[in-house]
Specification:
The chain contains 8 helices and 38 strands. By secondary structure, the protein is mainly β. Residues 317-419 form the CS domain.
């Protein structure tokens, strides 16, 4: 292991003016269940949580992670104002649940079935040398129409959500899947093909080469203690930062791995992909870095001038990925694809601010080495606003011509380039160049014999799709009641900053669409820590230019206080989940099988605040346990709670 010494130590200090010393307690407010509580019966086959066999020798930490696992996953809004969540049903289908706060209706859609290789119900060899048991499947929403999914048994899926030419129905499609095998040292030691893992966070990083950056954790046996005893299972946890390229030739690699004795209760990747913050009860140490694996491989001695000349030559000869032109009202973009590319291989979505375009060429044999780069734009921000309702794309398979027609929202505004970040592709001002581009495609890609037969099948695809685009958010595993440490790890695996605080109580609900930058600080999800009897809320931020300015990349600031929350939560002995509102209006505790405690917060120094108790029971069925929770609507403060056979919506405002 590599022992990290952080460059910066970040203090966590409460602000005295945010502490209400005059607070006396909460007053019970009767919750109006008739108008503020909605029950929705899940469609069959609903959810079955497998029981843990008695012959599994799990550690206490593993059992706690199973008990507190959040089976409800937050998604991005697809239709404005409607909340999106996901869960896995008993047949391993990914289910999309869409909630409309205006009508108080929930609609579910079965997206697709995820391959499941094993579960807890299978036979387990008591004397197994590996003891790597499956986890629950997990999911991270990367955008309104892209998901990262694990099946709990070591397979990772990239899933796209399609709305089937109809905004009211959705289906899913697996774009890519791969086995997670851990880093090279772990792989050699275990002898396993794939290692069960759980997703912690994931982000789409938009740069010169768009990719997905995500974190998973997996269990490893403590090499020191596992040999000394057979009765007590002692484990460690590896947290791996992985990169998945977003192109038809998807490739996944492990960037670095850190190891510690605890499962993190907080994990969030900064939206630019420069690093991430991890929070736990214990510290982590680096056990693997991909950047150090090739240290012994020395490059050939090439003169610097020669390198510069070669780079300039490559830059000069680089083929533009597209050509484009514009009028006062629209922008036209043309891409050259391999001949025979069908419309089903193209996944194109428009929003008012972003373009999402990926091409699936797995079944196309016509991809040649000289082919221009295949377009891959992962939710890339455009130069200016467009009107997605009248923007469209067309494909002519016989010559492989993909054309995007973008209607400008602001007419008479001239675009200097297509995307917000200039990629160096200049506008084609001469209309004759577009005609020549088409002629070249017809000359070099058309088949004279099949030309006449294929002319009748050039209807292409006029398929305008509307999707909101955003960034993703963070993990859903939550522990409580222990001292906390927060660490900032750079992408390469260096620990740069560390902060130690009081007992961890809870974190904020996930808010996928919220990417906030304040005073050049990228604001990450907040946490609530114990401070005497109160719960003090701290924002976690990353100064975007911290490396240039030589300042700490981690900033933790007290921003709100939940009066006496540390005191009241301590009396709840059967806590399943605790979260606070991203806007700091309330904090909620889900206890046992059917009860939610809600503590409201108001600005100022009032002596009392309101407390409500919500009973989550349905007379039409039994009383299964609470297995998940998210916010169905941030703006309206509606909380959605998952049971194995139903959903409950609590309207707090």
């Amino acid at each position: 292991m590599s022992k990290n010494v952080p460059k910066y130590t970040v203090p966590i200090k409460p602000i005295r003016t945010l502490i209400n010393s005059k607070f006396e307690g909460y007053k019970l407010k009767v919750f109006d269940e008739k108008s503020h509580l909605i029950h929705f019966q899940l469609p069959l086959p609903a959810i079955t949580i497998p029981k843990i066999p008695t012959n599994l020798k799990l550690s206490y930490k593993e059992i706690q992670s199973i008990i507190h696992f959040n089976h409800l996953f937050k998604g991005f809004e697809i239709n404005k104002g409607k909340g999106i969540c996901f869960y896995f049903d008993s047949e391993n289908f990914v289910i999309l649940a869409e909630y409309d706060p205006e009508t108080s209706k929930v609609v579910t859609h079965r997206l697709l079935k995820i391959q499941q290789t094993s579960d807890y119900s299978g036979n387990v060899e008591e004397n197994s040398s590996h003891h790597l048991y499956p986890n629950y499947p997990s999911l991270r929403a990367l955008s309104p129409n892209l998901l990262l999914v694990t099946n709990g048994s070591g397979i990772i899926f990239l899933v796209q959500i399609n709305n089937n030419d109809n905004v009211s129905t959705y289906s899913g499609e697996i774009l890519y899947q791969i086995e997670f095998q851990g880093h090279s040292e772990l792989k050699q030691g275990s002898g396993l093909n794939d290692i069960p893992c759980v997703l912690l966070d994931g982000k789409i990083i938009v740069d010169e080469h768009p990719h997905i950056l995500f974190l998973v954790y997996n269990t490893v046996l403590d090499p020191i203690s596992s040999e000394s005893t057979k009765e007590t299972r002692k484990v460690l946890f590896d947290v791996s930062l992985l990169q998945l390229s977003m192109s038809p030739q998807y490739e996944m690699k492990i960037i670095h791995v850190i190891r510690g004795p605890e499962i993190p209760f907080y994990c969030n990747i900064e939206f630019n992909g420069t690093g991430y913050v991890i929070g736990s009860n214990m510290e982590y140490e680096v056990v693997y870095k991909s950047s150090t694996q090739n240290e012994n491989i020395k490059p050939m001695d090439i003169d610097d001038d020669q390198i510069t000349e070669e780079q300039e030559e490559k830059s000069t000869n680089r083929v533009s990925p597209y050509i484009w032109t514009q009028t006062s009202s629209d922008v036209t973009i043309c891409f050259q694809l391999p001949k025979g590319t069908p419309k089903t291989a193209i996944h194109c979505n428009f929003s008012q601010t972003h373009l999402s375009l990926t091409i699936n060429l797995d079944d196309n044999p016509n991809v040649s080495p000289g082919q221009p780069p295949i377009p891959c734009y992962a939710f890339t921000r455009l130069f200016d606003l467009i009107d997605p309702s009248v923007s469209l794309w067309t494909i002519e398979p016989t010559i492989g011509l993909l054309t995007l027609h973008l209607e400008k929202h602001n007419h008479n505004t001239r675009w200097s380039h297509v995307f917000q970040h200039d990629d160096g592709v200049f506008e084609t001002l001469d209309p004759n160049e577009f005609a020549e581009f088409r002629e070249r495609l017809e000359k070099f890609t058309s088949d004279p014999i099949q030309d006449t037969n294929e002319q009748s099948d050039q209807s292409g695809a006029f398929k305008p799709l509307q999707h909101l685009i955003g960034h993703e958010t963070e993990e859903s595993i939550d522990f409580e009641g222990k001292s906390s440490v927060f660490m900032w790890f750079e992408r390469e695996g260096d620990l740069i900053a560390k902060s130690s605080g009081n007992e961890y109580l809870c974190r904020q609900f996930e808010w996928c669409e919220n990417v906030e930058i304040s005073n050049n600080i990228s604001v990450l999800p907040s946490v609530c820590l114990k401070s005497d009897v109160d719960g003090t809320v701290y924002s976690i931020g990353h100064p975007i230019d911290s490396s240039k300015l030589d300042v700490s990349p981690l900033v933790i600031t007290h921003i709100a206080t939940f009066n006496a929350f540390a005191f009241v939560q301590a009396s709840k002995r059967e806590k399943r989940f605790m979260f606070h509102d991203p806007k700091y209006r309330f904090v909620i505790i889900l206890e046992g099988d059917h009860r939610a405690f809600v503590y409201m917060r108001h600005e100022g120094r009032e002596k009392h605040d309101e407390q409500s108790v919500v009973e989550l029971t349905a007379s039409t069925s039994g009383d299964p346990e609470i297995i998940g929770v998210q916010m169905a609507s941030i703006e309206n403060a509606h909380v959605i709670i998952l049971k194995s056979n139903s959903l409950f919506i609590i309207k707090l405002l």
